[in-house]
């Protein structure tokens, strides 16, 4: 099986109203819906390359009754047990797991040393190679790690997943912006989450064909825009939004190649 260690493999909207999530994201991002064949109400979001994540009502899971609504980022692990143990050695915490879903894989919920939460995922399929190298329309094109202090947050991820720094950009008063990746492929960025940015967390960016259209649909569907749309270095355009349940999400329109 190809290594998926450190890749972003799945994205999950943890909410308290699945119907609201199912109404919002297909209209804003352009995803289609696919029902997961399981014992609970789980729907998958699909872009042009197939399913990229799903939506789950936390009220259906007693263990998640008190969990905050948020987008959960799943990071690939070749050995979830060993990676979870290593996360603890590096100063992180195991919040839940192991969680085994037949035919899907083994999972853990992890908090990094600063409290940013993500999940580990070890696929049950020996043929799973991770997401495609080029993000199709509707796929998650970028993940940001927002930290209290990236100088101390970075070594945790570097040692846990083997992420490599591609470049560090000076963002002035906002501090440095670290672009990271693995195997020559950029995966996301890391920046300091100043007081007005909220707590440490991982933020996902879905690729959309037109950021202005997506922003307009956000307002029409009961959400709001909290940043952008604006152009970033390289020519991409981004926007950060709050959905119709108060959950943060982000979108990117890639510059023409």
Protein architecture, described:
The protein is of the alpha+beta class and 257 residues long. It folds into 2 domains: 8-123, 2,3-Dihydroxybiphenyl 1,2-Dioxygenase, domain 1, CATH 3.10.180; 140-253, 2,3-Dihydroxybiphenyl 1,2-Dioxygenase, domain 1. The chain is 17% helix and 44% strand. The chain has helices spanning 18-28, 80-89, 150-161, 211-220, and strands at 8-15, 32-35, 42-47, 50-57, 70-76, 93-101, 105-111, 117-123, 140-147, 164-170, 176-182, 185-192, 201-207, 224-231, 237-242, 248-253. The strands form 2 sheets. Strands 2-3-4-1-5-8-7-6 form an 8-stranded mixed sheet, covered by helices on one side. Strands 10-11-12-9-13-16-15-14 form an 8-stranded mixed sheet, covered by helices on one side. A hairpin with a 2-residue loop joins strand 11 and strand 12 (185-192). The radius of gyration is 17 Å and the shape is globular. The two termini are 32 Å apart. The mean pLDDT is 91.
Question: Any descriptors?
Answer:
single chain; 257 residues; alpha+beta; 2,3-Dihydroxybiphenyl 1,2-Dioxygenase, domain 1; 2 domains; 8-stranded mixed beta sheet; 4 helices; 16 strands; 44% strand
Secondary structure elements and pairings:
Elements lengths: L7 E8 L2 H11 L3 E4 L6 E6 L2 E8 L12 E7 L3 H10 L3 E9 L3 E7 L5 E7 L16 E8 L2 H12 L2 E7 L5 E7 L2 E8 L8 E7 L3 H10 L3 E8 L5 E6 L5 E6 L4
Parallel strand pairs: 1-4, 5-8, 9-12, 13-16
Antiparallel strand pairs: 1-5, 2-3, 3-4, 6-7, 7-8, 9-13, 10-11, 11-12, 14-15, 15-16
